[in-house]
UniProtKB/TrEMBL annotation:
SUPFAM superfamilies: lambda repressor-like DNA-binding domains. It comes from uncultured Thiotrichaceae bacterium. InterPro entries: Antitox_HigA (IPR039060), Cro/C1-type_HTH (IPR001387), IrrE_HExxH (IPR010359), Lambda_DNA-bd_dom_sf (IPR010982). Signal peptide: none annotated. One of its GO terms (molecular function) is core promoter sequence-specific DNA binding. GO terms for biological process: regulation of DNA-templated transcription. PROSITE patterns: HTH_CROC1. This is Plasmid-related protein. Pfam families: Peptidase_M78.
Length: 396
């Protein structure tokens, strides 16, 4: 195929025209035309992501623009914010958006959660001085996170500072070192997320002596498919963790702190060791597998020692990095060229889900979960592997 990386606007429009011609012909699956269409689409997406990315607007400006677009008045926002006075305070920037407001406005007004979260503001806030009293210290104490500190202090706030310092997340104990990214991040949960990140970092370091050296060149699309196909086995989650750790990726399971809503996280420690953190918030096989491969995609494409990605898969995202990780994970399980032509998608049933699962050698829970998420089905709850993951990892 003579398809090349797009370097000019002219080449971009030529490829657009060819895609339209190919789509009009409705090429059959796995035909040369179908393969060419698939490749053209990938090349076009890569060019569009690079050339036409748009910085998210200010959250309040975005809300006002959407109100004008939908011809809404302030009173129309009351169901999402709680009262007329709160709406007025939010729009005049006297009251910050809460997590609940963000969820409601995102769902009902169709505004990206990234925009409403104001991630740029969060990133700036992250480098300000830390306020140790804002950490959920009582919950952390109850969980015993201070017990393993090398130099425990007398006060709880000092212990909190020690935990953050030992994990390498602060500059001289006063400001945070990493930028928090992803749909699981909100202004009100920043401190809890840093605490959880510190705990996962320290647990990952305990595993390092058992890890092989990490070589990022082994992460390919073929490797993603190898991991995905481990889901076919009853012990699949355990096998997947073992496989990743043999490749130098630490996988840590740590329940989320109560104030946070996250399924998983991905980052690299200061020495470059990649770490995947899983909360098992939803004890289901479909959620485990998608979270694992989504975080692996972040390790492959986005994670550094300067940032950390937190994911909440109950929130829809338009963020480019999150969308890319979603795409990589979905493609590893079910190729895009196959999914919307499959009977599991066109005529969802237990039998059709099982047939596609056998064909792809992945667990039916993954297909059932995708059907439920994309088509809004409440059915197939018996196929998603409820209660199976924590049992495998001996977690109550």
């Amino acid at each position: 195929m003579d398809i090349k990386v797009i370097n000019t606007e002219k080449q971009y429009h030529q490829y657009i025209d060819e895609v339209q011609r190919l789509m009009a012909c409705e090429p059959t699956l796995n035909s040369p035309s179908s393969d060419r269409l698939e490749l053209l689409t990938l090349v076009l997406e890569a060019y569009e992501n690079a050339e036409y990315s748009v910085e998210p607007p200010d959250p309040i400006d975005a809300i006002k623009f959407r109100m004008e677009e939908l011809d809404l008045k302030q009173v129309d926002l009351v169901p999402y914010c709680g009262s007329r006075s709160r709406v007025s305070e939010v729009l005049s920037r006297k009251r910050p958006l809460t997590v609940q407001m963000i969820r409601e406005l995102s769902t009902n007004l169709g505004i990206s959660s990234d925009t409403l979260l104001g991630l740029k503001a969060i990133e700036k806030q992250a480098v300000n001085q830390a306020d140790w009293s804002k950490f959920p210290i009582k919950e952390i104490l109850k969980r015993g996170w201070f017990d393993s500190l090398r130099h425990p202090a007398k006060s709880l706030e000092e212990n909190m500072q020690t935990l953050i310092e030992e994990s390498g997340l602060s500059f001289s104990g006063v400001s945070f070192k990493r930028t928090l990214k992803g749909d699981g991040v909100s202004p009100g949960t920043q401190y809890a997320l840093y605490a959880w990140l510190a705990r996962v970092t320290l647990k990952a370091r305990e595993k390092k002596k058992l890890l092989c050296a990490f070589d990022e060149s082994f992460i390919t699309k073929a490797f993603f498919q190898e991991v995905a196909q481990l889901s076919w086995f009853d012990q699949g989650p355990l096998l997947a963790v073992e496989m990743l750790e043999k490749q130098g990726i630490a996988v840590v399971i740590e329940p989320a702190l109560k104030s946070t809503l996250i399924d998983g996280a991905a980052f690299k420690d200061s020495d470059g060791t990649p770490v995947i953190g899983l909360t098992l918030r939803l004890d289901r096989l479909d959620n485990f597998w998608f979270t694992l491969l989504h975080e692996l995609a972040h390790i492959w494409k986005h994670a550094t020692s300067e940032n950390a990605f937190f994911d909440d898969f109950k929130v829809s995202s338009n963020n480019r990095q999150e969308s890319e990780a979603n795409k990589i994970a979905r493609e590893a399980f079910i190729p895009r060229s196959l999914w919307k032509r499959s009977d599991a998608y066109l005529k969802p049933s237990n039998e059709n889900i099982e047939v596609l699962a056998r064909k792809l050698r992945i667990h039916p829970a993954i297909i059932a979960g995708r059907v439920r998420r994309e088509l809004g089905y409440s059915r197939f709850s018996d196929l998603v592997g409820q209660g199976e993951v924590r049992r495998l990892f001996n977690i109550n």
